[in-house]
User: Fold protein-glutamate O-methyltransferase from Eiseniibacteriota bacterium.
Amino acid sequence: MAEDKRNQGTETDPTESDLDLETEAEDEETLLEERGRGTDQERLFVAGIGASAGGLEALGELVKHVPLDSIAFVVVQHLAPHHESFLTKLLSRTSKVQVETVTDGTVVEPNHVYVLPPNNDLGILHGVLRLIPPSGGDRPHLPIDYFFRSLAQDQGSSAIGIILSGTGTDGTLGLRAIKEAGGISFVQTPASAKYDGMPRSALASGFADFCKTPKDIGEELTRIAHQPRALALPMTPARAPQIQEQIARLFLLVRSTFGNDLSRYKASTVERRIERRMTLNRIGKLDEYVRFVQSNSAELQALYRDMLITVTNFFRDQAPFEMLKTRILPQVLDKKDGRAPIRVWVPACATGEEAYSIAICLVEFLGEQASEKRIQIFGTDVDEESIRHARRGVYPLNIELDVSPERLSRFFLKRDSEYQVSRRIRDMVVFSKQNLLRDAPFSRMDLVSCRNLLIYLQPSSQKKVLSILHYALLPSGYLMLGTSETVGDAPDLFSLVDRKTRIYSKKHVANVSTLDEILAVPGDQDRIQPGSNTRPIVSLQALADRKILEMYGPPGVLVNENLDILHFRGHTGPYVNPSPGAASFNILKLARPELHIELRRNLQEALASDKRVSAEVKFYENGKPNMLTLDIVPMQEPETKTRCLLVSFLKQEPPEEDVPPESESTEPEEHTHGAGKRVHELERELLITKEYLQSTIEDKESANEELKSANEELQSSNEELQSTNEELETSREEMQSTNEELTTVNEELQNRMTELSQSNDDLHNVLVGLDSPVIIVGMDLRIRRFTGSAERLLNLLPADVGRSISFLDAFVGGDMASRARQVIDTLSLHEEEVLCRNQRWYLLRISPYKTLDHTIRGAVASLVDIDLRKRAAALTRNVGDYADKFLGAIRHPLVMLDEKLRIVWANHSYYERYQLVPEETVGHIFPSPNDPTWKGARLRERLEHTLESGETLRDFQVAMQSSGANDGMIRLGASRVPVATDSTLLLVSIEETAAP
Assistant:
């Protein structure tokens, strides 16, 4: 209940809450900016060292060469949870600095190496090391990633991450966090590592600044620790313009190459990233670095990549996502009808983790209804490479730190050493490149999640972004910001919904700016000034001005041209007080009755003359007369040029009593003088009242005339609108009819597309399954399509589509174009046996290509392989002539077989003995598998042996069976017959003898 009351309080009084949130955000931002600041002597680097299998040797080599000051080292290694570690003793033998085991509350100091004890995770807060029991459960234990993330959040640009030998991917996401915070990352060269799993994973991620051996890493750390900082504060007044000029040159180079204006970023962000690049390139002066960037496109690309905001991970800060599921999404769904989609926009989405996290929350919230609802999530970012990464949806195994096992199994697919977002979630999210400050935004959004972007932008750009997001949201939409961000620059656009999670709802604004007006507002009005001293001075000056105004400034209100109050200043209760009735901010309805006449007259005069107007007014407070000076000053809003009036109430000393009480000592002259003064004042008030009444009468008459004129115009307009309405009604009916027709046509087209797709699939499968080469040509005799068999036989390529069919003449022989043209002209089938270039016989068949409506659109040419049949026929003919000539005198049955034991010739005795004709004999297998005479005789094996070896078969006897009794014996002989071909023939003789 207490929490609910606090939430209600923040909603009813958003100004105070927003101021508190803004103060918190400024404090946190100042802390982040000052982290790592100060003089070179004061700056302390904290280096986290991650190692696993084989890391002891690399650690020993590294601690031999570490610098002796300015850097504290924290070693995090994969250790067995219940075994004592001797790492501290082992490193102490070779280290030049002090080595000690971490205890809870250890304050990091330079010239020390701190070693993590077993069965603990390690975090750092304000330079103090904290031991944390591991979470346990099904989640993997990744102590290096855990500490590196904590180190990046706590130390900012003073954080250093080092990955040494080890297996797995632990430390990869930690290096990313350190690099995003402006720190420096090192990776041991895989060749020098005993186990290169962790180094290779870190290098593949692209988050490593240096890849060196442990010895070289130590030497590089020494150089970094002693390198002076070109932009270190304090900044002298004479030096500041020079630094600003050099930074402006870098901005110009980046904008010319990539189109993104970095001058909208905050000075602290820009300076940290530039100093980081200077440190990595061993450059100590800013002007030298500018010249280096001008001559090195790769460094310009690296600087731009470092400037981009890529701080993201899955379910960053769990509380906002729980708030989405429990409070925000139910309200969004209640305001949706069944057909309206749920629309979400994630600007500055980086590599997509935030967008996918919201998609997962939506699916979990909707449950079984998720498949029925239309969900549209848009992720945009200025970096094309990040967008490509987001579209792939592939992330390292280390996301197990942020994603629960249940979500991993439900929404991710594990592939080798990576996780890929499931297709269902990826289909919900559309990623595109967009510059939020320059390109047109999305619209009609239910939710916009813009987290950790505003904190990096200048105030003017923050205000522009908030205006863009306000435009993008539906009237019932919600805005989700980062934990260090507020809508302090635009309190009139959003109302606070939840203080902890920084969720806001869209406010209704009377004067809504158009999109062109919003995008036209410059986002870089505040020029970047180097150094962080600028902001505290401005903040203190503003605070001092506010205090002076509160103490000595008169109360007043700021009103617009409609006399509606926009802002209250000071205590205006004695002069402006709400009256009973409908709520209104009109100053004439809120002001005291005694002030109405003078206030109205002076406001009108100030608006008409656009000059300052003052007047004295008498009013009574608690029965006592008081004097008040109304001071009205015209003003103009600098950005929108909107006119407004500042009304100040200056209370004067109370006047003396007009008529003193009568007494015996009062002289008649004094009484007369007092009465005359009173009469003079009454006459003056009467004159003012008459003037006010006269002006009111004139205003009323003028208003009546305007109303009459407006009434006549309205009547005329009403007639025109009635006519227009009738025309629109007719047009609406016509459009409805046309729409129905279009709907019908669309359905027909969809059906046609379905049929066409099915036909294409059928045609594709038919063409792929055909063994015969088929070529389709158009009316111009150019190839349109061919089968895979044609591609293999004729050596066709996809590029041959469109070539004339004449280029097949060399293979087929003859004029293919004339043959095809004849078929098209005569609509007749052309068949021809041709001996092709590969010395095989084909049946060339060319037929007309007809559409379903019998229109000729070309020809279809096919080649059917008839080489076997052609040669078999020739062989049969030749063998038959030979056998009839030389074997005709033999009386017992003879047959001649080919290589597959098929009959190619038989003599007259064979046909006569077995009562066969040539049509039933030639081409059939001998001996027939279905003939019981040869069953079990193994004749086929003997004949195949004779064909292979050439050995003559003699007196092979087989018993003839009839009705289960032996009727006689068959004696067979076989020998190979030499013929003038590549084939081998077998002559078989059959003799029958009676049973003994």
Q: What stands out?
A: The domain at 318-519 is CATH 3.40.50.150 (Rossmann fold).
